[in-house]
Amino acid sequence: MKRIVILISGRGSNMQVLLETKLDAQIVAVISNNPSARGLQFARSAGVETKLVNHRDYADRTSFDKALGDAIAAYSPDLIVLAGFMRILTEQFIKRFSGRILNIHPSLLPAFSGLDTHRRALDEGVKLHGCTVHFVTPALDHGPIVIQAAVPVLPDDDEERLAARVLQQEHVVYPQAIRWFLEGRLAIEGNHVRLSAAWRNPVPIISPLPK
Ligand code: GAR
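Above: the input record for the complex with glycinamide ribonucleotide. Below: its predicted structure, written as tokens.
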């Protein structure tokens, strides 16, 4: 059975959904850089091994990433899932696990890479916002895209309402992307991901919806 390690920094709702989803894989560990990450408690109560690699215990990014990489490698994972993991990873780390790291980002990449995506989407007046699952490469938030979900931005949205609408879709697309990975259906070709699957009729998403 394939082995997954999940990395979190905080709440861990994506991790929680993955722990509650039937996957053809074992989630062998949840690792956090943050001792007070709320998700650690849930993982423990679900019987999953947890580990802390606190970035504050390391002098620089390189030594932290080396320790994090060693902690991950000890579990021999087939896949590393970043689920609200808020540290920028070094090129050495990413190369060490090349093609085996997925991330979820709360925007329709390449728009709004980085932080504060919901506030920036509201400031820009976009009508569609969303989330992206992508393979992690050294270019921050720019790896090959596996799947995206778009949601409308509504006139009375604030950051919290918009974030909640996006998060609901994160919980749908992340398990889907991981299932495809586990089934061996994702092929990385340059900056593209090819999905070996029959497409259902694609429907356009328009917001606001014309009457
Ligand atoms: C999610 O919205 C995820 O997309 C985002 O952090 C949140 C974590 O929530 N990730 C990033 O911003 C990565 N750059 P969760 O801890 O409840 O899964």
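Notes for the reader.
Strands lie at 2-8, 25-32, 50-52, 79-82, 101-105, 128-135, 145-152, 186-189, 192-195.
The chain has a mean pLDDT of 97.
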